[in-house]
Amino acid sequence: LQMELLLLLVSLSALCVSAEQEVENLSGLSPNPDRDIFVVRENGTTCLMAEFVVKFLIPYDVLALNGIDLITEQTSVSIPRGAQIAGRCGSSESELQISWNNHAFTFRIFFSKEKRTLGSDGKAKEAEVWKINKVQLVYNTSEATHFINAYNPGKHTASTHHLSALVTPAGRSFVCSAQQTFTLISSDHQKGITVSIYDIQIQPFDIKSDFVFSEPYKCITDEREQLEQMLPLVLGLILGLIIVITISVYHFHLKLSAAQQPQLPRDRSLYKNM
């Protein structure tokens, strides 16, 4: 009886967990046709949000015309609108999984949260951050739309190693328009797969409002580009200010010089007394 009760509780628990988690592909709401929007919700609230444009450059082998040699081709792959998503939220680890073309492609991003010592000069303090610690792509070269005439087709897994990317203070979302590039090493003869992600906003932890990102944390590249865009304006304002000051000083100097010069009488008869 106790065993049956335990099994019943486990079943109810599993049913409850599956019922409490929702995943949504909201890419159709994006004004950019290439930008994807993915949401993972647990217990009726958003726990992971991701918006980005992603492109995959995947090398694969084809047989040469001589029927002996192998030639490496490359195919470009992007995530279609109807992609299926799954996710997992935790206090220190989260995951986003995206699949498409009947699971011929599965893209997974793993997130983790950790504490780091920040600062220097005796002012170091411990702060909590989150990051991407792994990126993985599972792909099947039997998918003939992208892998045309692939040699020895089959399923392969490509992953990053020792990754620490998009490091962001806890409680904030990462924002970056600039391209972020990852290199994945494939089980297909150690080929290198390039994953390019840009126009990004991601938050895998500590989302305070449903469907709303927390305060953005801009990447260094965007900050630098913003500074470069503002620099000509600032220099123009400084130059204009210098010109105004120079003209004002010169005008003041002319008036002062004129006031200090002796005044000649207008009546010419008075010149003989001078």
Automatic annotation (TrEMBL):
Question: Which biological process, per GO, is one annotated for this protein?
Answer: establishment of protein localization to organelle
Q: Which GO terms describe its cellular component?
A: dendrite; early endosome membrane; endoplasmic reticulum-Golgi intermediate compartment membrane; growth cone membrane; late endosome membrane; lysosomal membrane; recycling endosome; synaptic vesicle membrane
Gene3D superfamilies, sorted: 2.40.160.110
Q: Does the keyword Zinc-finger apply?
A: no
The stretch of residues making up the signal peptide is 1-19
Quote the subcellular location field of this record: Cell projection, Dendrite; Cell projection, Growth cone membrane; Cytoplasmic vesicle, Secretory vesicle, Synaptic vesicle membrane; Early endosome membrane
Q: Which residues form the Lysosome-associated membrane glycoprotein 2-like luminal domain?
A: 37-208
Q: How does it sit in the membrane?
A: Single-pass type I membrane protein
Q: Where does the protein principally reside?
A: other
Task: List the Pfam families.
Answer: Lamp2-like_luminal (PF01299)
Q: Which UniProt keywords apply?
A: Cell membrane, Cell projection, Cytoplasmic vesicle, Endosome, Glycoprotein, Membrane, Signal, Synapse, Transmembrane, Transmembrane helix
Mark the transmembrane ranges: 230-252
Its annotated function is as follows:
Plays a role in short-term synaptic plasticity in a subset of GABAergic neurons in the brain.
**Would you identify the family this protein belongs to, as annotated?**
Belongs to the LAMP family.
Name the record gives this protein:
Lysosome-associated membrane glycoprotein 5
